[in-house]
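Predict fold of DDT domain-containing protein; 697 aa.
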Amino acid sequence: MPLYKRKPFSLVEKPKDLKPQELVFQVRFTKEIFRDYSEYLKRINLYRKRVWTCKATGKINLTYEEALVSEKEAAEKIQNFPKELVAPVLREIQFSMLTLRDLANSVAAKLQGPFSEGAVLNGRKDGRLHRCKIVKVPEEVDKTQYEVAWLGSDNKVTGKALLKGEHLTGKKLPFTRAVLKSFIKDSTYRSFPWVLHDSLANEHGISTAPPKELKSKISIQDGLIVSNRKRKRSDHEKNTGEANENGFVHRKGNEKPEAQAVKYPIDDLLVQPSEEDQYLTERPSPCRDFYVPMECVGNLLMVWDFCTSFGRLLNLSPFSLGDFENAICHKDSTPPLIVESYSALLRLLIKDNGDFYMAIENKKRKPKITAITWTEYLCDFVETSCALKLSTHVSTIKRGHYGLLDINVKLEIFRELVTQVLETDIVREKLDEYIEERHALASTRRDEALEEGKKRREEKGRRKAETDVKEIVVEHTLKSAASKHNGLNGVISEKRNEKVIFRQNHSSGNSENERGIIPEKNAKKQKDVNALIEDTNNSSRKALKLMKFDIKEAIETKNTAQRKEYLEREMEKRIVRTNSLGKDRNRNRYWFFRREAKIFVESTDSMQWGYYETKEELDALIGSLNPKGERERALKKQLEKNYNKIILELQKRSKEAAHRIAMEEEAVLRRSTRVRAPPRENPAFAFLKYVNKWKEL
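Predicted 3D structure, encoded as tokens:
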């Protein structure tokens, strides 16, 4: 089995109370069974990490499946190991104290070097090489003659002879060093010393009793050989107690053992309280004053985020989360914001020519959706695409009483509609387009970073060269002054000339660029265009290069800071999906939406929601996260990374609120007692004045 970080890894046991009809999740290559999808996904992600080691070959940085394949291939090669060499190799392995690499080299050298009994070689006879087998090895060191048996084509002995070692030629080993290492690992159950499996040793008549020189270093426990090596004791252990043979320290009296150092970060729930916790701030309680029921907040955020993120595709101008929430809760009538949102989503479904389009075609409805007919199309959608429990509300919508529906019903219809829209070809093509554009922007950003780094290195080299020239001038000046040589002026002038020549070379290059003698930018641009024309085989690569070329044209006249800002802004415009910032200790998720200046908090069951909306609350939240935990460490990193962006949105929101309050107070002060001014509009009813500025005409 593959090793996890070079240590054995145990698989999950099969559930005992598993029912035949129960739906479970099974890992394909380990046959492990999980009831919980999150646990299954966690195990799959672990298997996909490159932290596994092939037990047979020792290859590292593999995925679990790659390690399994490597072990399988190694096992097949081990099965083909020459049978006549198994016993000699096993004798060399038994109780060897060499490292794996040295042991493999030693075995290979002995197989190729001084010939052993039973080895099949080529011997010289009558000026030609013939196959032979070593029958007897000389016992005395001085004698170099071997008794060999000549082998015929059918491996039968045709004769015997005495040959010198120089007349014998060893064949190339029929296996590689890697196969030999795998064979050594597969044949043993421990190393230092290497000990064969008892069954394998008995099969080939190899002794399992350790030699005398190793008896002081090893011992037998439960029928297995173990090492007697002890852990080195520290000075603290020597002063407080003695370590036994297993490495445990016997302490005197009632002294408690010292806690083992923990390597952070670890799982958040395993983090123990410590003195450092006093530096953590108290986590503020999130605000929970939503107008919609708490269990509906998730659907509210999902629908609003989709409508605002893909507003251009839907031809629906953006609106705030507060306006959308107020419009959903409004019961007196159906606000224009709701009408336009439904109309935009239904129009896109019709354009996709899918099931909904076929349904309205069968009813012979006009393809144009208006503020009067939108309820008819909505009823058609609910009847054809929604669950049965939502279809019971069609009669209420047809009577023109959409506002009287429960809030959870309204959001369920919206959620189902958004889900259907996400599956359309139009949205999928747009997402593919966004992904390609994001790849081009990211590639351009990397190129910019590399170019900037190159310029910094060149500038550093130029400054160093100028410094070296100055040091040479000063050094020669001091030497000339000390010796009072008459050629002082000549030396100084010579070095000055070198300095002048160095500066002239740099200035000449700059002047050529200024005069346009070598138009480097135009040449580079022309080179890029030619490269694009030649690369016609791969259309996707060509499209990516064209995108990068257009992006570079757009940022060519901007400085470095403006380029970075432009690339970041364009990346944010092309939203593929909104990801959470991370999770805290209790696995509550944290969300930040670009168009809403709040940090939303979602509970593990998605039934409780809250938010932070001030800078003080954000700072307190960051200060309360414990970096010793894996989840809170990652969340803190994301919050700090996006801190400036979040603070900018929070400050913008607070300024708008302060300005609105100031305007209202000023209007009250200017109001005349004789001429009553018309009352100002209540911001809470701004959603009633919504106008879709991106609507198709």
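Residues 231-253, 491-519 have pLDDT under 50 and may be disordered.
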